[in-house]
Amino acid sequence: MPKIILTGDRPTGRLHIGHYVGSLRRRVQIQNAGDYDKMFVFIADAQALTDNADNPDKVRENVIEVALDYLSVGLDPAKTCIFIQSQIPELCELAFYYMNMVTVSRLQRNPTVKTEIQMRGFGGESIPVGFFTYPISQAADITAFEATIVPVGEDQKPMLEQTCEIVRRFNHIYGDTLVEPNILLPDNAACLRLPGTDGKAKMSKSLGNCIYLSDDAATLKKKVMSMYTDPEHVHVEDPGHLEGNAVFTYLDAFCKDEHFAAYWPDYDNLQALKDHYTRGGLGDMKVKKFLLKILDAELEPIRARRKEYEKDIPAVYQMLQRGSEEARQVAARTLDKVRHAMRIDYFNDTELIAQQAQKYQQQS
Q1: Does 83 reside within a domain?
Q2: Could you write out the DSSP letters of every residue in 189-218?
């Protein structure tokens, strides 16, 4: 079976370092390793509209922001098909058919759906149907391209599980047609769900606790130096706590041993730094300055590439158009298979037409 990668992001704002360590960085690594047959990365604008129907300009304007973020982290349109979800109408038709594979109660039990509904403050009867059926739309995205591997953050795991359920149900009813995907989670536990700068459980645009990939050096410094640490670590000599300390969680996600040789040779590795912090005698500001140097080194080439792509925005849209045209051809082939399996490809079924013709000829 071909090894096909598919993943994407909603264009509701610029992408942040939570996206980067959770999925973006892995995508670039996979792309550059070349150990796959095809890679698709898409901008999920149609899904973003499910809870932004009254603000289409927000989605429209952020499509280019996400595209620039993709290119700036190193996704290469010569190696990766980058496309816009709404430009592939076949996805809507697949989602419509998959709705018959899922019950309302099953969607209500989806942990990711419940969390997202709560975050957006939807009441029981005010949930947009499109938003509620988001897992079904995601199943259409994945299966349309016969993806075998989907690199995502931990919060999307329930969505992938629901996709697998839909695939199994469809294949049970209509025969072996759809490909069941596998989830690829970050191999670093700290990257599974990077907290916000305020220590909240998740970095979120709506909470304003993000470090964006496009933040300049001054903005990055301001955000890092104001990060949540350990509220009980009042004095330098006080023992510090690592649990819930956002600065050390970020170090777990980004820090490498070579960073100490470059920026803080007093320590050999991160564990030595943690040991000093937990026994006391190490101030939060020193640790934040160290983190700042690491993040600035990571983000500087990303910022530089973004500035280059910003010089020719029409070329970025042309890249998205080419990717969308390529993606639509692939999705159309899958839709043909689905229609055939469901026995609704009437005009291509010459045997059906001949049988019906013979039936009515005999009657006459």
Answers
A1: yes
A2: GGGSSPPPTT--SS--TTTT---BTT--HH
In a domain, 359, yes or no: no
Same domain for 152 and 263, yes or no, is: no
Bridge partners for 182 per DSSP: 149
Of 291, 309, 327, the residue that ends a domain is 309
What is the Cβ-side half-sphere exposure of residue 171, based on CA atoms within 13 angstroms?
A: 12
The secondary element (H helix, E strand) that includes residue 84 is strand 81-84
Q: Which two tokens stand for residue 239?
A: 């023992």
Please tell me the predicted confidence (pLDDT) of residue 190.
Answer: 66
pLDDT digits (tens, 9 = 90+) for 136-184: 999 999 999 999 999 877 778 888 999 999 999 999 999 999 999 998 8
Residues belonging to the chain = 364
d(CA 90, CA 336): 10
82 has which bridge partners?
A: 41
* Residue 362 counted as domain residue: no
186: pLDDT strictly greater than 80: no
Residue 65 sits in the same domain as residue 149: yes
CA distance linking residue 352 with residue 268, whole number of Å? 73
Please check whether residue 113 is in contact with residue 137, taking contact to mean a CB–CB distance below 8 angstroms.
Answer: no
CA–CA dist 94, 163 (Å, integer): 12
Tell me the residue range of the domain where 157 lies. Answer: 4-193+313-352
Q: For residue 138, what is the domain's CATH number?
A: 3.40.50.620
Type of residue at 22: G
Alpha helices, H only, 157-283? 157-174, 217-225, 246-254, 257-263, 270-279
| CATH number of 305's domain | 1.10.240.10
How many domains, the chain? 2
3-state helix, strand, coil in the chain (%, to 5): 60, 5, 35
Do 11 and 115 have their domain in common? Answer: yes
